[in-house]
Amino acid sequence: MYKLILSARTRKELKKVPKQHREAILLALDEVKNDPFEGKPLSRELIGRFSYRVGVYRVIYQVNKQNQTIYISTAAHRGKVYKRK
């Protein structure tokens, strides 16, 4: 099982998400922790990252196989999440 590391931005974004969606995202993070390669590999400027779909929200993360860690860079509405760097 991998260890999750949430960025400060992710923590802020999760506070803004409605409670029912936040709970769904947290459940999805447990799934990602068990199988980090279940998410969709991203391309272009986000190459090396994965996207995990949770309703209308997306969780963007990177996997470090060596350290067995997953770095969650952002979790936001799908309309906003890909526009950030």
From TrEMBL:
<dbReference type="InterPro" id="IPR035093">
    <property type="entry name" value="RelE/ParE_toxin_dom_sf"/>
</dbReference>
<protein>
    <recommendedName>
        <fullName>Addiction module toxin RelE</fullName>
    </recommendedName>
</protein>
<keyword id="KW-1277">Toxin-antitoxin system</keyword>
<comment type="similarity">
    <text>Belongs to the RelE toxin family.</text>
</comment>
<dbReference type="Pfam" id="PF05016">
    <property type="entry name" value="ParE_toxin"/>
</dbReference>
<dbReference type="InterPro" id="IPR007712">
    <property type="entry name" value="RelE/ParE_toxin"/>
</dbReference>
